């Protein structure tokens, strides 16, 4: 869910923004005459958010109707949390298809991220609708690439959008990829989360514990 903000709040967040990324069709290179422009802006994390102890998963959005542009905002902390949790695939798309980081495979070849792509594909496959099928095929391509230890590339995304997609075939592919992801996760090959390198072994234990499936007491 997006929290709609007004122009003054939009200007405030613009001043706090550290990095700005095109998302959606402008990122993929699949625009058409009626396409709008969507940005995700990453701003400095406030002390209020950092110490609130709340999930704070929802992002801000400002709709510039005159410019046909949607401005989406998340904090640096939100970006990482939403990437790791699979809350959306927007953050994984930015990692995979922009210069956000060189650690693309490390951050995105996780159970949560792959399941996010599969989840959005399953949602889009509920309708036998051309644009929805393209979106589903793109998500399945990203999930399949990550499962195969390959980075998805934008040229292939654009090829997907140039071809007719078959819903039954995509449904079968989604089911097969979901089975593969679950098997790799159960075998310990896929981890739930990417884990950062900590400054001390004790903090490393804390971070690594997020990938424990069961604790011993």
Structure description:
This is Nucleotidyltransferase. The chain has 217 residues and is an alpha/beta fold. It has 2 domains: 1-100, Beta Polymerase, domain 2 (2-Layer Sandwich); 109-217, no CATH class. 52% of the residues lie in helices and 14% in strands. It has 11 helices and 5 strands. A hairpin with a 4-residue loop joins β4 (59-64) and β5 (69-75). The mean pLDDT is 96.
Along the chain, the helix and strand elements come as EHEHEHEEHHHHHHHH
Spatial shape: flat
Q: Enumerate the spans where pLDDT stays under 50 for 5 or more consecutive residues.
A: none
List how many beta strands DSSP finds.
5
Strand content: 5-15%
Largest sheet: 5 strands, mixed
What's the number of structural domains?
2
| Helix/sheet category | alpha/beta
- Work out the helix count: 11
Measured on Cα atoms, how large is the radius of gyration? Answer: 18 Å
Q: What is the averaged pLDDT score?
A: 96
Q: Which percent bin holds the helix content? A: 40-55%
Major sheet: arrangement of strands:
1-4-5-3-2
Q: What distance separates the N and C termini?
A: 38 Å
